[in-house]
Amino acid sequence: MQNPEKSLLEADLHSLITFLVVYREGGVTRASERLGVKQPAISNTIAKLRKRFGDELFLGRRAWITTERADQLAITLGPAFHTLHEALATLDAESAR
Predict the structure, then answer these.
(1) DSSP-derived secondary structure for 4-71
(2) How far, in Å, CA of 2 to CA of 68, rounded?
(3) Are strands 58-59 and 65-66 parallel, antiparallel or unpaired?
(4) What is the pTM of this model?
(5) Which of the four pLDDT bands, split at 50, 70 and 90, describes residue 1?
């Protein structure tokens, strides 16, 4: 069994964060604006995640509809990234003292 640290390193957290922003913003355009990244980079990331998870994740062109798998990913990953964000903010605040 793979150790958790190695598993997290291989998880490509950057892509998963990008997915969450696309999910929350409802599409590539708003996600690219929020992240300050060009739209093709976001689209390429979503394409990579579609292959990884074996699911389209988002359906449609203009108004994206999430798939059941995308909903599961967001429900699972959202709280985990929120906890990580809070932990980093706490550490940053302690460092600033």
Answers:
(1) HHHHHHHT-HHHHHHHHHHHHHTSHHHHHHHHT--HHHHHHHHHHHHHHHTS--EE-SSS-EE-HHHH
(2) 28
(3) antiparallel
(4) 0.85
(5) low
